[in-house]
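Input set for joint prediction.
Command: fold jointly, output tokens.
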Amino acid sequence: MTSLAMIEAAAHRLSGQAVRTPLLSSPFLDRIAGRRVLVKPECLQHTGSFKFRGAWSAVSALAPEVRARGVIAYSSGNHAQGVALAAARHGIAAVIVMPSDAPEVKIANTRALGGEVVLYDRARESREEIGAALAAERGLTLIRPYDEPQVIAGQGTVGLEIAEQAAEAGVTRGDVLICCGGGGLSSGIALALEAHAPDLRPRPCEPEGFDDVKRSLAAGQISRNTAESGNICDAILTPQPGEITFPILHRLCGPGLAVTEDEAMRAMALAFARLRIVLEPGGAVALAAALFRPEEIDGDAVIVVASGGNVDAGLFRTALDRFGAET
Amino acid sequence: MTSLAMIEAAAHRLSGQAVRTPLLSSPFLDRIAGRRVLVKPECLQHTGSFKFRGAWSAVSALAPEVRARGVIAYSSGNHAQGVALAAARHGIAAVIVMPSDAPEVKIANTRALGGEVVLYDRARESREEIGAALAAERGLTLIRPYDEPQVIAGQGTVGLEIAEQAAEAGVTRGDVLICCGGGGLSSGIALALEAHAPDLRPRPCEPEGFDDVKRSLAAGQISRNTAESGNICDAILTPQPGEITFPILHRLCGPGLAVTEDEAMRAMALAFARLRIVLEPGGAVALAAALFRPEEIDGDAVIVVASGGNVDAGLFRTALDRFGAET
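tokens >
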């Protein structure tokens, strides 16, 4: 299980390796949301998402002789790139199992970062089985994307930074909206806030139709999505909350929030115009919730974790075409 | 004249007001440039450019009874927004004199930030004369965009941060490429680096055809541009280096660099894909120089100040259309 001590140790290992992302704000966004909005732009993290933190945490925690044999990961793209870069910086091999329908830019970038990409069919094959088989065959260590204590510890460093930076901005009470797939980022942040900012309440955000975490939190038990793909928020589509992450989320998080694909795209256009950052749809759902679900949020200020920015130029242009004039 | 003590005092006044922007990097940009590239993204600063620093520095340095009468500024857009927000946060009036051909987004944002916008014809009228007349008539204090010691001191805080952050990244020697208009940012950074990182060499970057600073540095005396507009890098088109800034630039800077409009647009597309930040053309010229003029740069690492990101969605889409596939 991930402890606060593990998160703080991960922060120590990540020091000088990860970007300490600032908190950004804009009076224009405050006006739309009806409260202060503070955005933690993890799209500026190495490889374009928070995933580098967890990947570095896990790879750097391995015993040297184990690490030397290499690592393997399965991922729709962001975890893949995080593990590929963390492995490359450690000088070890990284095999990455990716769905064949992952965004091209993520597949290409994973390869360019030194990852050996193995594609699979999301509808017919199990990435977990493929990962386990390759790991056994080649002596690689599997780095799970979220159900892995050292990965959760790495993502939790976002929470340590939020606790400090929000206090500096005068915010010690309010909701922290977090883009959520399997729950690694949300559970890590929740553990860090529990210790360092107990009046900041973590709340997972998801796309409508893929709101397994929201429904699981409401039901008090793990609930699955009916579909596994078919939404532009590819980065955060997971079948269900993790077995390790869900108990943490259930204990520490407020209710989940869900937004539409169009709301995610509008949030991308507003982040472009008002924060000058690039978000991918899955990285924009928490901002979308802050802006377009104000009645579901408590407090004078809301903190948003914008989790990633690995988006094809074509899809980004579409968001600007459709919503760029509204900003 | 701006002194190091003034820059440090400005840093103190800006603490908690300005974003401490991180240094960003990408192995993909390193590969193109042939050396490490560390980017200081001032597009993430409040109002979308470094100009907020100088504006806050100048407004906060005024005597309270003088400040209470309000301020006036002339600007193509970024200084305008910086002064408007700094004034609004101080609860005072800000009159902003802007060219009628400034980007719409900058005019609209300046108004939305509380600025009272006065438009003028760039080809027929002098913004300096309009500013001086309005200042006298209404008792406003003129906040010059660059030839103003407290503005230079505010911009110099970027240099203080670079000195610290570059050292943390292991870089104490190399070129610092800076997008340059009138020279306020470049001269402020140069003064800060002279004291805190003397082996980091500031180098102004401009668009070809509007490289008055580059030519002035080469000639050892102030040289004017022949045209005053007609380039997409609107944020950094100034007729000539400032009377106050030029002697500082001449004493402390290495040779200037100049890039084409297409190179600035390519740098915008690469910053989108590799750093997930939004740059305007004028804010991208230093990155363009780092990527496309490697033979004019010294050292194993180069630092880039990406100065602003206030760009219309249409122009940004054009950059992605033309150069988004090359990334």
